[in-house]
Amino acid sequence: MPNPERRLRVSLPGVKLVDSVPKSAKKSMIYDDFVSYYIYYEDEGMVDWFIENKTNEDKYVTLYRGGLFKDANIPLYIIGSEFAEVYFAKGESSFAQCLANLRLQTLAVLDDGSNLQIGVVFYLPARSVIQIPEFGYKNLEDIIGEVFEVKSMGTDLYAVFYDYTEINEYRAKYGHDVFPPHDPYVVESLRFSIKEIGYRSTNRYIVPVRELVHGKDNVVTEFDMIKNS
Predict the structure, then answer these.
(1) pLDDT of 83 higher than 70
(2) How far apart are CA 36 and CA 39, in angstroms?
């Protein structure tokens, strides 16, 4: 796990649609359907991400990003997965139960076919640009932001076991008190298919409650194995 000083923190209340990409923004990745851009503010250690939807269709996406710093590097992982329980506890985001309730951003369960993780999913209307502020980029040397389109797989009730270290790190770094959900907690959430989960900034074991109730696996033992891996 990266040093707490190197953990990224997305500002979900600051997410918004903008009329166009600022001229000062640099391109990060170009795709047939999307383009990602960024503006780096060195003094604040902040990056403004911009994702452009070039299609005539509404899309659901997440950002898979990382950076190279003078003192460390952060591997690619899903935006919002680092402090998901903090964002949830502070009311900066919530878990949408249906697409109709998803405005600009939501926490959601992401599924790459082998693993489940929590991250932020963004709603991009056709021909739109979304701005996503993120902090934690002091002494940045290089950055990459890949855009992953995600597809809804429906809604389910999940039990989420998570590493409480993220709460202690957040309190230590930002000095804010936060009252996180219990470990484990149960939440109803949309589930989206995704190309890749990538690095786990926060270890979690996520299981549908129906499997927890009817399955034969020892969930606590499995989570202990994940935390110690």
Answers:
(1) yes
(2) 11
Q: Indicate the length of the chain as a whole number.
A: 229
- In this predicted structure, what is the pLDDT of residue 91? 95
Q: Do residues 162 and 184 make contact, with C-beta atoms less than 8 angstroms apart?
A: yes
Contacts of 9 by beta carbon, 8 Å cutoff, 6+ apart = 82, 83, 134, 135, 136, 174
Mean pLDDT over residues 38-56, rounded?
A: 97
Listed in sequence order, the DSSP H helices in the chain are: 84-89, 165-174, 209-214, 219-228
Region of residue 50 (phi > 0: left; psi between -120 and 50: alpha; otherwise: beta): beta
What pLDDT does 212 receive? 76
Rg, the chain, Cα only: 17
pLDDT, the chain, mean: 90
* Residue 75 near residue 158 (C-beta atoms within 8 A): no
Closest CA to 184 of 216, 150, 226: 226
Between CA 125 and CA 123 the distance in angstroms is: 6
Q: What is the DSSP string of 153-192?
A: EEEEEEEEEE-THHHHHHHHHH-----PPPSSEEEEEEEE
Q: What is the mean pLDDT of residues 35-62?
A: 97
Q: How many helices (H) and strands (E) does the chain have?
A: 4, 14
Assigned token pair, 219: 């969930």
